[in-house]
Amino acid sequence: MKLIGLTGGVGSGKTTVAGILRDLGATVIDADEASHAVYEPGTPGFEAVVREFGESIVRDGRIDRARLGRLVFDDEESRRRLNAIVHPLVREWMAARTAEAIEGSAEVVVQDVPLLYENGLEDLFSSVVLVYVPEEVQIARLVEGRGFTEERARAVIRAQMPIEEKRRRAHHVIDNGGTPEQTRAQVEEVWAQMTGR
């Protein structure tokens, strides 16, 4: 079984590449899905986050992710406190899904981890694939696609390791700045290199 890490910068198009890898036969395990799952109502993560940040972050019985995000984004200490709760739970969730995939005879498992390098996880993987676009493209996608102001887009990008540093460290780079067909062709080529297929 091959364990591959998939990462990128915000707005780089990891979801697109993850979908292509899934089409090619990979089992994809998504850290964003994990981060939602670990503080669903009734989970220990939900209780811990509410205990740490108060009832004001709960709306309609669920954690209001937008409100929590605003609270922690501009406050490094709050972000550190949230990460201390959520990151261990996410790692546990990802490990459990990976074990299930192995038990199900998966040959290639791709963990989609946005902050793979920021959290020092690269040594867990036989290969790391970076989905790359230049920072200015990231900004344009966040402004046009997600309704961010340019200032907010730049702040979100600054909160991550620079995309050029990730590019230097990755085993494989998918340049997602072209057409969908160009992206797919690159993913297929990297897939063949990683799997021998």
Question: Can you walk through the features of this model?
Answer:
The protein has 197 residues and is an alpha/beta fold. It contains nine helices and seven strands. It has helices spanning 14-23, 31-37, 44-53, 65-73, 76-103, 135-146, 150-158, 163-169, 180-195; strands at 2-8, 27-30, 58-59, 62-63, 108-112, 127-132, 172-175. α2 (31-37) packs across α5, α3 (44-53) packs antiparallel against α5 and α6 packs across α7 (150-158).
SSE layout and pairing:
Blueprint: E1 2-8, H1 14-23, E2 27-30, H2 31-37, H3 44-53, E3 58-59, E4 62-63, H4 65-73, H5 76-103, E5 108-112, E6 127-132, H6 135-146, H7 150-158, H8 163-169, E7 172-175, H9 180-195
Parallel strand pairs: 1-5, 1-6, 2-5, 6-7
Antiparallel strand pairs: 3-4
